[in-house]
Structure formats: C-alpha cells, structure tokens
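User: Study the chain.
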Amino acid sequence: MRRLRPILLGLLAAAAWPAAARADQGATRAREGVEGRQLVTLESLVSFLEAHYAGRFVEAELEHRHGRPIYEIEWRTPEGRMLEFEFDAQSGELLEREKHGWRGGHRR
C-alpha cells in the first residue's frame, strides 16, 4: 500500500489538471469580456443576489450556450440549501433559478 500511495496521488493530480485548466480559461474569458465591455461583471450579479436573496455566494462559471455567454452562479441559503441562478452575461438578465434538493424558496 505504501508504494501505491504516490502513484494514486499522481493519478489524482493528473486527473484534476484539465478541470483546473478549464476553470482558468473561463476566468480569462470572463475578465476579457468585462474589460472589453461585452459582459456584465460577476460582482454586479452577486450584489443583485445579495439584495434579493438571503444566503451567500458559493461559485460561478461562465458558459456558452446557443451562442450566448451565460453566468451560472451557485448560492447557499441560510438553511444550507443550494440555488443555481443563470444570467445572460451580456445583458445581466436573470434567465433561470433552479432549486437543488428542497421545496420552497427563501426570498428577502
């Protein structure tokens, strides 16, 4: 088992590398879009959520669907439940709100 541990750790690190690279690419695309004034800032969307929903920001991703950039923002409620919001990254329009693993919402 002692000999397998370094090999397993190496395999885990290698498996995580592509995910980290994709996250870096998404952050770079978002930064370039904001600097080019093509995308709204993630900070402005988080501020909107803070004003309208109890809870806290968890993470965000910038994706492209049907030729348009979409921010997916995960939000944790005070009860520990997860919400996922989808915003049009160019206009800031809230497109969708999904609840994960619960019934009912908690709005401010």
